[in-house]
Amino acid sequence: AACSSKYVLSQMHPMWQEPLAIPGGDRQSPIDIVVRKSVYDSELKPLVTDYDPQTCQQIWNNGYSFLVEYDDTTDKSTVKGGPLQDKYRLCQFHFHWGESNAWGSEHTVDRKLFSAELHLVHWNSDKYSLFEEAVMEENGLAVIGVFLKVGKRHEGLQKLVDALPAIRHKNSVVDFNRFDPACLLPSNTDDYWTYHGSLTTPPLTESVTWMVMKQHIEVSHDQLAVFRSLLFTSADEEVQKGMVNNFRVQQSPCGRTVRSSFS
Ligand SMILES: N/C(=N\S(N)(=O)=O)N1CCCC1
Ligand SMILES: [Zn+2]
User: Is the dihedral of CA 125, 127, 128, 134 positive or negative?
Assistant: First the structure.
């Protein structure tokens, strides 16, 4: 199995080639969450998020997704509780989506694909002083994953959707202030699955405590269509490529147990 070797099969991926060797390589993300194999852990506490909309700084297209970046020089926007021993600082959030509503998420639940997936990326500010430091450490990062389903329009998301045409091309950036990412969380954040995994894009480091929300949020077809109007390519490139299917292929669980905060 891929777990025993230090090498993973090189899976072609439109955006980037899976590296042949990944440090460790036995706790990669994303994975399929097999509900009946997940283990209820009554010790898991509710997640405590405390986000300050004033720390929102900019939104930009990094050629793989679009990121909303937060000022992470102080502990103003944080997550703690849940499976976490420490306090983690929000540095950015971004999404993954498909070219069709039929797929697009990175994690799946009993193989069920969602149309998109939100990732709120935090780093351990109790133990480290910079994201770049934390990204290399076992307990360095905490990412909250939220599934998106196409349905009713998400009012809070619209402010973000309206900013996307200004960052159509790779490396474009615009100021973006006072956005409260809490509006993107489902009403119930007490029910989640958690497991130890990795970043799903390079550097793929195995430093992430994943907390995947059981409850999804709904966005409209039109809102998701604007995500798909973004481009992977910068303005000066001859061939423009639509930013779709920016998700990683699923990785082997390698014997990992996914815990649930609910029975
Ligand atoms: N892959 C990532 N996040 S993710 N998709 O694993 O949440 N990142 C790469 C550098 C900063 C965050
Ligand atoms: Zn992500």
Answer: negative
CB 258 within 8 A of CB 37: yes
The whole model's pTM is what? 0.95
**Interface TM-score (ipTM) > 0.85:** yes
Q: Which residues pair with 80 in a beta bridge?
A: 48
Q: Whose CA is nearest to atom 3 of ligand 1?
A: 199
Q: Is the CB of 67 under 6 A from ligand 1?
A: no
Express each pLDDT in 77-89 by its tens digit: 999 999 999 999 9
Q: Is the CB of 121 under 6 A from ligand 1?
A: yes
Query: Mind giving me the DSSP string for 124-157?
Result: ETTT-SSHHHHTTSTTSEEEEEEEEEESS--HHH
Task: Quick: pLDDT tens for 148-173.
Answer: 999 999 999 999 999 999 999 999 99
Distance 29 CA to ligand 2 centre (A): 10
